[in-house]
Every structure is written in structure tokens, then in C-alpha cells.
Amino acid sequence: MMFCDKLVELRREKGYSQEQLADLLNVSRQSVSKWEAGQSIPELNKLIILSNIFGVTVDNLVRNEYDIREEKLNQVNEMQQENVIPEETSTNQEFLFKSNFNSVRYYCNYEYKSKIKIGKIPLIHIKTGYGLQVAKGIIAIGNVSIGVISLGGLALGGISLGGCGIGLIALAGLALGGLAFGGLSIGVIAAGGLAIGLYSVGGLAIAAKLAIGGAAIGHTAIGANPSGDNILKITDTITKTELKDFILKHHPHFWKPLLKIFTTFMNK
Fold this sequence. Notes:
single chain, alpha/beta, 434 Repressor (Amino-terminal Domain), 2 domains, five-stranded mixed β-sheet, 7 strands, 37% helix, rod-shaped
């Protein structure tokens, strides 16, 4: 039986239409139609996926049934003559491993693009899976994401969340932005384990103007071990009111919402 006939038979056994099978393979329905008409043959990666879908080997899928029977008969005759059982070669093992790996890698990948676009950019683009998957959209989610709102291992955008975030507002393990929050944060306003910026708060805070942290270094420094021109050492007797008054004394135009956030690190 030829490949085209096998494909028709296996597809019908599974109850798939040509369009449904095309969706599983991420190809057009016309491609499936040409395969079944014997006008073309799928690429190797598509053959591997087809073999997994139908639960058959690639060899059985593409080879003529007569040739397979003939080869098996020859193998049996050789085994009878030599009285040995052939072992699977390392080359075959390597091929099987690569085939399974490629198949798993294909099914792990996922991509979605919304039909709604702003200009030529999709409103939502999601692209995740094996390898470097880059998502570009107004809202972008991917291994690498680029958008107004970005979520990913590496996120770049207006609002960025991820392992490494770069944006106007960044929340990440490594955050760089206007407002940066993370293990290591660098920004105009930075908060994190190590915070570097114009205004910083964190375990180790380094700032050009105001630093608040366990170790604080800045023009105005507040912490257990402060260093700067204006310093306030945190003790059990320091209250939030005293902290606010100290900040406003040296920075009278300090932004009130930010002042409230910074002083929440006080216990009293």
C-alpha cells in the first residue's frame, strides 16, 4: 500500500477530516489533500508527527507494504542461517531518540496571535515552548516578549514581568526601568535585594538622592548602616512619623505616594 493510501485510511480510522489533520500539523488543508492524492510527500518532521498521531512508525508509514514484508522475510532467513538475534544498532537508536525528541519539541510549542491588530502589531501574541520563542504584540507572552505589556523569561516593554524585565515599569529577578522591582533592580525608583537608582529601597540600597535599606548609601541615607551626607540610623525607637519628617526635611517636595511606600518598611 502506498503512502497516500495509508494516510487516507489512517485519517478515516481516527475520524479526522482533512482540515482537522491539517490543524494538528500546522499546515493548510490543501497540503493534506495533495499528500492523499499522491502529488507530494510531507517533510520528515511532518512524517514524525503523523507517525505519533496514528501510532505507527515512520518506516511503516512511508514504505510500501510489499517492501517491508520482503525485508522482514530476508531478516528471518538470515537469523535462521546464522542462528543469532540481531541487536538494534546505535545508529537506529540515535534516529529513534531524535525522532521522539523532535516530536516532543513540536507538541511543547504553542503560538497564538489575535486577529485584532493595532497597525501591523497583534493585540495579543503568545509564543512559548522549546528554544527561542519571541512574542511581539501589544500584550506579549513568550520566552522572549516584546510589547506594551510583556511577560516572559526576557521581557521588554512598557510594563515588563519576567526573569529579566526591561521597561517603564519592570518587575523581575533582574529589573531595569523607570520603576524597577526585583532581586536586582536598577531604575529611577528601585526596590529589591540590591536596589540602585535615584530613589532606592532594599537590602542594599544605593541612590543618588534617597536610599533606605539594611545598608543604605546615598545623599540621604536611612538604614541600619547608612552612609551619606544626611544619615538616619534605624533603631527600635524610630517611628514612621520621625522617618517621614526626616525625609521631608531634606526632600520637601518628595512625592507623597512614594513616601508612603518607602515608610512601610518601618516596623512602627
